[in-house]
Specification:
This protein is an alpha+beta fold. It is built from four helices and five strands. About 25% of the residues lie in helices and about 25% in strands. A hairpin with a 6-residue loop joins strand 1 (about 80-90) and strand 2.
Length: about 160
């Protein structure tokens, strides 16, 4: 019998011991970082229903027709390969309940590097942690190695210029 595959979230654990239980709805991610990792795995494994379920009710995509969004997510997931995730920094929930995770996602589309860094915000909705919003930047536009970024030195959207 072949060994169980590693989890795409790059936690070092096998998928069945890591994100699988969240994807199957057997448990909720215990914190914002675990949710972010499980969402990366969901993109890699095309778990689009999970991506929908873990959007915060205030996320703009929640106002869209569900089936339309699921179709788009399936297309995005199918068109990309997700070889590696690097969690760069995290911030515990603040007084408003918002937690922040900075990550570097290695992503490829037909051999082209589409990797990016994102500062993601998460909030608990009473059931579990949910993805609220994100501010991303293509890794190709960074003026430093993505692995050196922290929440303190991540370029703000207004500080980037018009490109």
């Amino acid at each position: 019998m072949p060994p169980a595959p590693p989890c795409p979230c790059t936690s070092g654990l096998r998928y069945r011991e890591c994100c699988a239980r969240y994807h199957r709805g057997e448990a909720e991610a215990p914190d914002a970082e675990a949710l972010m990792r499980s969402r990366y795995s969901a993109f890699a494994l095309r778990e689009v229903e999970y991506l929908w379920r873990t959007l915060h009710p205030e996320h703009p995509d929640r106002a869209r027709p569900k089936e339309e969004l699921l179709r788009e997510l399936r297309a995005v997931c199918s068109a990309h390969k997700y070889p590696r995730l690097h969690v760069l920094d995290r911030q515990a929930p603040d007084e408003t309940g918002k937690a922040v995770v900075l990550f570097y996602a290695r992503i490829f589309e037909k051999g082209k590097d589409r990797s990016f860094v994102e500062r993601s915000e998460f909030r608990h909705d009473g059931t579990g942690w949910r993805y609220l919003s994100g501010d991303g930047m293509p890794a190709s536009e960074l003026h430093q190695s993505p692995e050196t970024l922290t929440l303190g030195n991540f370029p703000s959207p207004t500080g980037r210029g018009s490109g």
